[in-house]
Amino acid sequence: MNEIPDLLVRYLRGPDLVAAAMTGATDLELDFKPAPNKWSVRQIVAHLADTEAIAVTRLRGVIAEDNPALVPFDQDAWAEKTNYSKRKPARDLETIRRLRADNYELLKELPEEAFSRTGRHARRGTMTLLDLLRLFAEHAEKHAVQIHGVLSEYKTSQAAR
Questions:
Q1: pTM higher than 0.90 for the full model?
Q2: Order of all β-strands in the sheet with 118-121
Q3: What number is the average pLDDT over the span 17-34?
Q4: What kind of fold does domain 4-159 have according to CATH?
């Protein structure tokens, strides 16, 4: 069975899942960290926006080049040095939506065989365009679940007061 159409739909709806997960959250909720080494909702959304920017180059690289290098990034360094704790979630969410919509338009027009094109990730090894699409589709879904969890922990912490 060809999973590409389903993955494309999941990929495109990722920002909606994230938006729904954080709907109605106050600044206190957005900035709550369930543990010192865990991210707040604000930081998670900033991470998703930056990851989407990386997706642009990774997806296009695999489409256009022969087996390009897919360079990993240090998400904790990005979080610290690009100020995830001060970013505006609404702006980051719009970035995610815009970049995903552009990627979706590109990907949906590709022939099925293009999804077998590969790139070399330094940690994950050889990845196909289909692998990347799957990874990025799941990424927003997993973080939407994480956002629900952080907000639930916030409510629990407030009820315990």
A1: yes
A2: 69-70, 118-121, 125-128
A3: 96
A4: Four Helix Bundle (Hemerythrin (Met), subunit A) (1.20.120)
